[in-house]
Write a structure and sequence with these properties.
The chain is of the alpha/beta class. It contains 27 helices and 8 strands. It folds into 4 domains: 170 residues, 3-Layer(aba) Sandwich (Rossmann fold); 60 residues, Helicase, Ruva Protein, domain 3 (Orthogonal Bundle), CATH 1.10.8.60; 137 residues, Zinc Finger, Delta Prime, domain 3 (Up-down Bundle); 116 residues, 2-Layer Sandwich (GMP Synthetase, Chain A, domain 3), CATH 3.30.300.
Length: 583
């Protein structure tokens, strides 16, 4: 019966030339072996799956090989074969994670003084050496500094900072770098061809990105996905429980647009399909990182990108997100990923994270506040005309040159309707001799409004500019700048209620926090003599129906002192240039 062997063990390199992506190390060691200039101690550092232990085993065979070939072991002589199958005990591999006590190191030190029995050099390979205790490190110091001529130490670790400086100074250090995705992809296709696995180039690229620079991880992922038959992107995503670039980009676009229902629906669908919630946040984090690099280093940062997204997708998403917003998203994603392992409900944790990503007002962190301030500064800095041109789908009709200057100075509601003539109150209009007076057309229902009601009705639509002008200096500059934004803020008096429509949720929160509604109520009461209630509503003001403006009911009661007659109100409104007063 043939026992199946994992791909990363079956295709472990046996010579320095077969090691992928570490030429800066293998070339140096090969020259040392060829020239006989070997050190007594080596320290291999680097991330997992990059070839540290593999190079240590190759070096142990190369220094004891009877027929070395350009610094590589021949892997055919008795010494190479014995070291490879473990029958020669002069080459010993130790795991410091389970042999980290001072007693084990003392026993190793006492045994190391004896000459090897079957090979030229006694070699000790200590993996994960950072796990040794301080006492064990101290016991190793003396023999590591002045070992016998027949002794060699090869230490390997993924956390160099935990190794004592006194140990590092006694070793030749070699830093193993992460293997590039292109090199991993080429190696995967080579292994898949030998194993008769239908691996597509796209699938190999995806596995290479997921491996994060570790070839061993890539081979393990290929081994896991090979049972699905053809190994393409869809099969890999289904096997590993990942979203995929298209799903990730679509979810990121919903987050950028603040589409909370759409984002939650996407998470629900992915959760039902068995996708890993931690992997979902990880893919969003990678995309947010790429977008941040594309924003901050558009020219030289191309080599830093993961390369999983096409240029059109990156440009579309980059237009929707600013660097402060991306920083806020990255911090939120990283924080949630760290807390996910301790969460009682991973799905709920991810949904809460999406709430904060879609609406930065829910994020009370410093990054969330900075993102909101940046968005607010952008709204204040952009002129209303630029905002109108960006929001309007169809371009506005051309404006005659002679009317351009006048239109720039006047607000839209003054341009939309011509200024009506104001007849004198003292003298009625004269009727030419012989002409019959024209009777005004009277609707059957309701009865014509009183003169006071007519004046208030005609002033209701243009009261907001007067209120806005009077609020200058009475509210904060930031609040006044947003109140003046005609595209986002509109006001209208309807009976005893003054409604303020705002186009953004953060503006509503700002106005409510600053008690803007109370100042508007006080100003309207001061101008009309009637107590009103101000209501701040999210959305756009509904358009008035064509034709005559519906009559505004005037509450009963006498105006307060200072505004005894409607003439005083009209005189007060005439002080504002943007108001049209009609009889």
């Amino acid at each position: 019966m043939i026992t199946y062997q994992a791909l990363y063990r079956k295709y472990r390199p046996r010579t320095f030339d077969e090691v992928v992506g570490q030429g800066h190390i293998t070339n140096t060691i090969k020259r040392q072996v060829s020239m006989g200039r070997l050190s007594h101690a080596y320290l291999f550092t680097g991330t997992r799956g990059t070839g540290k232990t593999t190079c240590a085993k190759i070096l142990a065979r190369a220094v004891n090989c009877e027929h070395p070939e350009d610094g590589n072991p021949c892997n055919a002589c008795p010494s190479c074969l014995g070291i490879e199958n473990g029958s020669i005990l002069d080459v010993l591999e130790l795991d410091a994670a389970s042999n980290n006590g001072v007693d084990q190191v003392r026993a190793l030190r006492d045994e190391a003084v004896y000459t090897p029995a079957a090979v030229k050099k006694r070699v000790y390979i200590i993996d994960e050496v950072h796990m040794l205790s301080t006492a064990a490190f101290n016991a190793l110091l003396k023999i590591l500094e002045e070992p016998p001529a027949h002794l060699m130490f090869i230490l390997a670790t993924t956390e160099q900072h935990k190794v004592l400086a006194t140990i590092q100074s006694r070793c030749q250090q070699f830093a193993f770098k992460r293997i590039l995705p292109g090199e991993i992809s080429a190696r995967l296709l080579e292994v898949a061809q030998k194993e008769a696995i239908s691996l597509t180039p796209e699938g190999a690229d995806l596995l290479a990105r997921l491996a994060d620079g570790g070839l061993r991880d890539a081979l393990s992922l290929l081994d896991q996905c090979a049972a699905a038959g053809g190994v393409g992107e869809e099969e890999i995503l289904a096997t590993l429980g990942l979203m995929g670039n298209l799903e990730t980009a679509a979810l990121m676009e919903r987050v950028a647009q603040g589409d909370i229902p759409g984002a939650l629906a996407a998470v629900d669908r992915l959760y039902a399909a068995g996708k890993d919630m931690g992997g979902l946040l990880g893919e969003l984090s990678v995309l947010a990182r790429d977008l941040l690099i594309a924003h901050t280093a558009p020219e030289g940062g191309g080599v830093l990108l993961t390369g999983g997204y096409d240029g059109a997708t990156m440009k579309r998403l980059a237009r929707l997100l600013t660097p402060p917003r991306l920083i806020q998203m990255l911090e939120q994603l990283q924080r949630t990923q760290g807390e996910l392992a301790r969460s009682a409900n991973r799905r709920t944790e991810v949904e809460l994270c999406l709430f904060r990503l879609c609406d930065e007002t829910q994020d009370a962190s410093a990054a969330g506040i900075l993102a909101r301030l940046t968005r607010l500064e952008g709204l204040i800095a952009s002129p209303p005309k630029a905002e109108r041109s960006e929001r309007t789908e169809e371009p506005p009709p051309p404006i005659p040159p002679e009317a351009a200057e006048e239109q720039d100075e006047l607000p839209p509601w003054d341009i939309a309707q011509p200024e009506p003539s104001i007849p004198s109150r003292a003298e009625p209009e004269e009727v030419p001799p012989g002409a019959q007076p024209v009777e005004p057309t009277v609707k059957e229902a309701p009865p014509p409004p009183s003169p006071r009601r007519a004046e208030v009705r005609q002033r209701a639509g243009c009261l907001w500019p007067a209120v806005l002008a009077a609020l200058k200096g009475k509210v904060k500059p930031g609040e006044y700048a947003n109140l003046s934004n005609r595209e986002l803020v509109q006001g209208r008096l309807e009976g005893t209620q003054f409604t303020l429509w705002v186009g953004e949720a953060f503006l509503k929160d700002m106005f409510q926090a600053g008690k803007v509604s109370e100042r508007i109520e006080a100003q309207v009461k001061d101008m009309t003599g009637t107590a009103v209630r101000c209501k701040i509503t999210l959305g756009k003001a509904p358009e008035e129906p064509a034709g005559e403006t519906p009559e505004q009911e005037v509450p009963a009661g006498e105006p307060p002192a200072g505004h005894d007659t409607m003439d005083d109100l009209i005189a007060l409104g005439a002080q504002f240039d943007n108001i049209i007063i009609t009889e």
